[in-house]
Specification:
EC number: 2.7.4.6
Strand content: 15-25%
Order of helices and strands: EHHEHHEHHEH
Largest sheet: 4 strands, antiparallel
Distance between the termini: 27 Å
Bound molecules: uridine-5'-diphosphate
CATH topology: Alpha-Beta Plaits
Helix content: 25-40%
CATH architecture: 2-Layer Sandwich
CATH superfamily: Nucleoside diphosphate kinase-like domain
Number of strands: 4
InterPro entries: NDK-like_dom, NDK-like_dom_sf, Nucleoside_diP_kinase, Nucleoside_diP_kinase_AS
Low-confidence stretches: none
Strand order of the largest sheet: 2-3-1-4
Cofactor: Mg(2+)
Main location: cytoplasm
Mean pLDDT: 95
Number of helices: 7
CATH class: Alpha Beta
Organism: Orrella dioscoreae
């Protein structure tokens, strides 16, 4: 997603971030969380968890018709993931900028995916892409957390 040319005002937002099984296996949870923190995002909830097939299918239901769906689900359940709620100014877009493009080969230098991801399937991180998805995805993993931070 592109940054709008003019952002009318800053907003404190919450967004869901997942450090995917490839990055957890590489032992870089700390390095990735560090990038969020250095960019001014705050971790307000987090846990390491193992997704079941049913959970992964439900989480990625929007992609269920895509050819890569089964491989994506297989990958997401191949090991533990680190799920977090990040909070900060324009957190949704900021997180997406820090992540870089879906395909690490196309991701900008210095982004998480450029530095830690191996391929478009094993691409280190997930991040909500809009306020509506952030609300659904935060509630998916942290039903007790208010996405608006109230
Ligand atoms: N994905 C994949 N193959 C593709 C496109 C996507 O395996 O050709 C996976 C990849 O893990 C990606 C996820 O599906 O992160 C969701 O895709 P989306 O286009 O929403 O990318 P994202 O928002 O994660 O950058």
């Amino acid at each position: 997603m592109k940054k709008p040319e003019f952002s009318s005002m800053s907003t404190i937002e919450r967004t869901l971030s997942i450090i995917k099984p490839d990055a957890v296996a590489k032992n870089v949870i700390g390095q990735i969380v560090s990038r969020f923190e250095q960019a001014g995002l705050k971790v307000v909830a987090a846990r390491l968890t193992q997704l079941s097939r049913a959970e992964a299918e439900r989480f990625y239901a929007v992609h269920s018709a895509r050819p890569f769906f089964k491989d994506l689900v297989d990958f997401m359940i191949s090991g533990p993931v680190f799920v977090q709620v990040l909070e900060g100014e324009n957190a949704i877009l900021k997180n997406r900028d820090l992540m870089g493009a879906t395909d690490p080969k196309k991701a900008e230098k210095g982004t998480i995916r450029a530095d830690f991801a191996d391929s478009i399937d094993a691409n280190a991180v997930h991040g909500s892409d809009a306020p509506e998805t952030a609300a659904v995805e935060v509630a998916f993993f942290f039903p007790q957390i208010d996405v608006h931070g109230r």
